[in-house]
């Protein structure tokens, strides 16, 4: 592989900015697609004639596929070249985006979202690698800052863009808008990035490990997505999937620990700082993303919000995160990273407790308030925690540690989406039964009848009221569980040793 210190001089200074913008835009597109479909799930479900729960497969399938390809990125760029792999990934992402928008059924949409994830997974780490090769050391800080801004802007704009498009045009266009971005990035990337192409070499690939990884993750995600509709372990199919996932996972661990060229280097978990750091990362990301999934669905279904308004409420967190992010590097090295992470994660937990006090009569700005306040903690969680995890491993293990960290983070998003919806659905049923037991329908029905309603109308009003309040109580219950998970994550951080100073986090992706 060519030396990045030398390859930077092969790009004209006048082209560096354009190359950096192309790479940042590509990363933005991939991150955007992780959240752009969240607020569009009700539109997709209504159009395809499926339940909202089934509509969330559009989210989880993308995240799982993306997680699977992340460990493969290192082998892919060595085998085919960094620039070629980047262009191929963007082209594949654009192709599957078109197919997603043309999908007439849920099955085709999920398959195409998997294709999107498989092509989009390598784009994030590859763009970081290319930024390091494009810019000289004295400019990399600003270049990585631009890249980091797109990572924060993606989740912020995703719900807003997705909601606006779904309300004013059609959900199909949340995928079609990727096409012009892909064409621009391919044409510009092919011209600008050619000088920093890397040498290729044929390396062995852990085919059995890759097969085991796909197998146990697939069984686990199918169990989580189908379980809530099939009475969980009361269904033989769910039991079978659970057993297969457990067996596949155990065999995968044994194989990876004994393989000379593992697809996932599990030996990195011997470092205490990395282990507890990524556990905290997974728990925090899972609990955080659960709210991004539940809030839009709750606001659009019983609360009557448009997708645009629901997306705006969801997006406030990332907007304030952008304003706070510049202050984080100034504190790095001066303050123990564990203090910053633990305080930020506990702050997120308090915001979850705040959201657990919501009522069905809440107004827009009362919904937005905890989202706005929560955003100020996001940067103080992500960047310092990366320094803890990557600072705990050996320098030659940094790339593998960063890949494994991103894999677990993406998997946490997929798993938490399914679990949060399951918890929310179960809590709705329990709350509905409890409300029905305490309600005195005869007295209420008599009052409504005296007010001029017919018998059927009064029954429908009572049913709607019970359903609305049951959903609201279930939302509160889910947020309380999320708060508990966040408080646990804040405590787990302290099981890691103090991060060493001057950690290079450029390999994090």
From TrEMBL:
Transmembrane segments: 21-45, 57-78, 85-108, 114-132, 144-165, 171-193, 205-224, 236-255, 276-299, 305-327, 339-356, 376-394, 470-495
Keyword Cell membrane: yes
SUPFAM superfamilies: MFS general substrate transporter
Cell compartment(s), UniProt: Cell membrane
Membrane disposition: Multi-pass membrane protein
Occurrences of domain Major facilitator superfamily (MFS) profile (ranges): 19-501
The UniProt record lists the keyword Cell membrane: yes
Top-level taxonomy: Bacteria, Pseudomonadati, Pseudomonadota, Alphaproteobacteria, Sphingomonadales
Domain of life: Bacteria
GO cellular component terms, A-Z: plasma membrane
GO MF terms held by the record: transmembrane transporter activity
Keywords for this protein: Cell membrane, Membrane, Transmembrane, Transmembrane helix, Transport
InterPro entries for the chain: EmrB-like, MFS, MFS_dom, MFS_trans_sf
Classification via NCBIfam families: efflux_EmrB
Annotated family: Belongs to the major facilitator superfamily. EmrB family.
Name of this protein: DHA2 family multidrug resistance protein
């Amino acid at each position: 592989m060519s030396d990045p210190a030398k390859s930077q001089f092969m790009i004209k200074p006048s082209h560096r900015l354009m190359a950096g913008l192309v790479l940042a835009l590509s990363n933005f597109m991939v991150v955007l697609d992780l959240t752009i479909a969240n607020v569009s799930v009700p539109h997709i479900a209504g159009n395809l004639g499926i339940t909202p729960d089934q509509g969330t497969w559009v989210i989880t399938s993308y995240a799982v596929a993306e997680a699977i390809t992340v460990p493969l990125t290192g082998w892919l760029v060595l085998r085919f070249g960094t620039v070629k792999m980047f262009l191929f990934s963007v082209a594949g992402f654009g192709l599957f985006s078109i197919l997603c928008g043309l999908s007439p059924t849920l099955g085709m949409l999920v398959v195409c979202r998997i294709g999107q994830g498989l092509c989009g997974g390598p784009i994030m780490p590859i763009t970081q690698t290319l930024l390091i090769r494009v810019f000289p050391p004295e400019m990399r800080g600003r270049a990585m800052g631009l890249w980091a801004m797109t990572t924060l802007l993606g989740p912020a704009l995703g719900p807003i863009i997705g909601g606006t498009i779904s309300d004013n045009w059609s959900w199909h266009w949340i995928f079609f808008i990727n096409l012009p971005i892909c064409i621009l990035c391919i044409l510009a990337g092919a011209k600008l990035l050619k000088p920093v192409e890397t040498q290729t070499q044929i390396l062995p690939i852990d085919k059995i490990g890759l097969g085991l990884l796909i197998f146990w993750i697939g069984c686990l995600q199918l169990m989580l997505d189908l379980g809530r509709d099939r009475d969980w372990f009361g269904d033989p199919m769910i039991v079978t999937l659970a057993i297969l996932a457990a067996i596949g996972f155990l065999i995968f661990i044994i194989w990876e620990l004994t393989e000379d060229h593992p697809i996932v280097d599990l030996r990195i978990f011997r470092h205490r700082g990395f282990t507890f750091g990524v556990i905290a990362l997974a728990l925090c990301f899972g609990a955080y993303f659960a709210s991004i999934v539940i809030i839009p669905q709750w606001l659009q279904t019983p609360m009557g919000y448009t997708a645009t308004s629901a997306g705006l409420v969801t997006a406030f967190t990332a907007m304030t995160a952008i304003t706070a992010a510049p202050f984080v590097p100034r504190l790095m090295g001066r303050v123990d990273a564990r203090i910053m992470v633990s305080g930020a994660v506990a702050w997120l937990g308090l915001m979850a407790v705040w959201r657990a006090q919501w009522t069905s009569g809440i107004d827009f700005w009362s919904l937005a308030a905890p989202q706005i306040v929560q955003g100020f903690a996001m940067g103080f969680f992500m960047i310092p925690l990366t320094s803890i995890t990557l600072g705990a491993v050996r320098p030659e293990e940094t790339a593998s540690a960063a890949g494994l960290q991103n894999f677990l983070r993406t998997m946490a998003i997929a798993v938490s989406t399914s679990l949060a919806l399951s918890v929310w659905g179960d809590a709705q049923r329990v709350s509905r039964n409890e409300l029905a037991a305490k309600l005195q329908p005869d007295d209420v029905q008599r009052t409504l009848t005296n007010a001029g309603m017919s018998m059927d109308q009064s029954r429908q009003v009572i049913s709607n009221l019970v359903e609305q309040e049951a959903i609201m109580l279930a939302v509160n219950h889910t947020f309380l569980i999320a708060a508990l998970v966040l408080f646990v994550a804040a405590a787990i951080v302290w099981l890691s040793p103090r991060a060493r100073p001057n950690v290079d986090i450029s390999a994090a992706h």
